[in-house]
Amino acid sequence: MFVYGHMNGWGWALMSLGWLVLLVLVGLAVTVLLRHAPDGGAGRAADRYHPGARALLAERYARGEIDDEEYRRRLAVLEEVTAHRQGSR
């Protein structure tokens, strides 16, 4: 790798490849950490563009797709699931 105190072509190539591998590994580590964030991924971009379950339920109720009884029953289930998830953290 070193010839007369200077790095030859193979040295530069291996060093460049090493840095590239290191950058890819750091990028993968950051991606994995963000996907498994303790907030459950609530801040991810995909979640910002899709309405929550309560909003969808309210929309279906407003359109008349479900009646009062079904709306209240499903809302109670959603609240129960939400309370269960918050209690398990």
Write the layout of secondary structure elements.
Blueprint: E1 2-3, E2 6-7, H1 9-35, H2 45-49, H3 53-63, H4 68-88
Antiparallel strand pairs: 1-2
Protein described:
With 89 residues, this protein is mainly alpha-helical. The chain folds into 2 domains: 1-50; 51-89. Helices cover 72% and strands 4% of the residues. It has 4 helices and 2 strands. A two-stranded antiparallel ribbon has the order 1-2. Helix 3 (53-63) runs antiparallel to helix 4. The longest helix has 27 residues, at 9-35. The radius of gyration is 26 Å and the shape is rod-shaped. The mean pLDDT is 80. It holds the Pfam family SHOCT. Residues 56-78 form the SHOCT domain. InterPro entries: SHOCT.
Q: Give the ordered list of helices and strands.
A: EEHHHH
> How large a portion of the residues is in β-strands, by DSSP E?
under 5%
**Tally of extended strands?**
2
Question: Total domains, how many?
Answer: 2
Shape: rod-shaped
In helices, the fraction of residues equals over 70%
**Radius of gyration, whole Å:** 26 Å
Distance between the termini: 53 Å
Tell me the quaternary state: single chain
Which whole number gives the mean pLDDT? 80
* Main sheet overview: 2 strands, antiparallel
Strands ordered across the widest β-sheet: 1-2
Number of helical elements: 4
Protein name: Putative membrane protein
Keywords: Membrane, Transmembrane, Transmembrane helix
Domain SHOCT: 56-78
Transmembrane segments: 12-34
